[in-house]
């Protein structure tokens, strides 16, 4: 599973977390390995079961006010046993002053003690979303991601098959480019894949014969998207004479990424086939499937019903109306 250091958390820009370090500077390279957070209120009372050292520990008004009511000896003992568990870091909310015992023990055990001006509820909501995005599994895919009629279409296939040219044609038709060449794919709970472009290649596209072009500058902000949920994968294949291709659409295939399966279509490419049009139709058809309508299955059901009716009629003609 992905990990994030406390130092990286502090260096992230535009997070809105408003974090500052109070003590435990030697532990800034500790890893945060879970997107879930915890409030160690019971631990301050001496109950240390079910604590998770790899989670962020939030100290709000309730925890700090309880700590102040304890005798100095009990407070010191409880905080020391808490810090001995080796947490990633503690975060004090609402800009409250840190108790001296907490400053001392976190420095001794090299556990970063952070502070934010945000209220506990707002900070927990924001940090949970942030960590969920950073810590869930991710990977990179060689392909193109395009938003077609609101459907995230991931184009894959061998190099030079025409993925970028097809995406460019889709942009000219009014659709939106998310990423070209390298698609960064992240999971999002419960089982959804999101794709985005890499920092270096964002909004850029490589077209053989033209070179590198900037889609945002050429077509405007309406032609690009930062990220998009991946709903459908389409593999572009070279047309091969004699090869068998799906002609009915009944054989469901899937493209697997990060243990999540998404519908897959394989479209052969050859002169005379308008691939962009086929992708638009595939996106519309995917929308219908998500609404519960499958045209291929409906056609199969009608065909089987008609065949059954014809078989029954044929039986009556041969044997007679007395057949039961």
TrEMBL record:
Mg(2+) binds at residues 164, 206. Its cofactor is Mg(2+). Its EC number is 2.7.11.-, 2.7.4.-. Residues 5-131 form the HPr(Ser) kinase/phosphorylase N-terminal domain. One of its GO terms (molecular function) is ATP binding. InterPro entries: HPr(Ser)_kin/Pase, Hpr_kin/Pase_C, Hpr_kin/Pase_Hpr_N, P-loop_NTPase, Ser_kin/Pase_Hpr-like_N_sf. Pfam families: Hpr_kinase_C, Hpr_kinase_N. Residues 134-302 form the HPr kinase/phosphorylase C-terminal domain. Signal peptide: none annotated. Residues 268-273 are annotated as: Important for the catalytic mechanism of dephosphorylation. Residues 205-214 are annotated as: Important for the catalytic mechanism of both phosphorylation and dephosphorylation. GO terms for biological process: regulation of carbohydrate metabolic process. The keyword Endoplasmic reticulum does not apply. The keyword Transmembrane helix does not apply. Both phosphorylation and phosphorolysis are carried out by the same active site and suggest a common mechanism for both reactions. Homohexamer. This is HPr kinase/phosphorylase. It comes from Desulfuromonas thiophila.
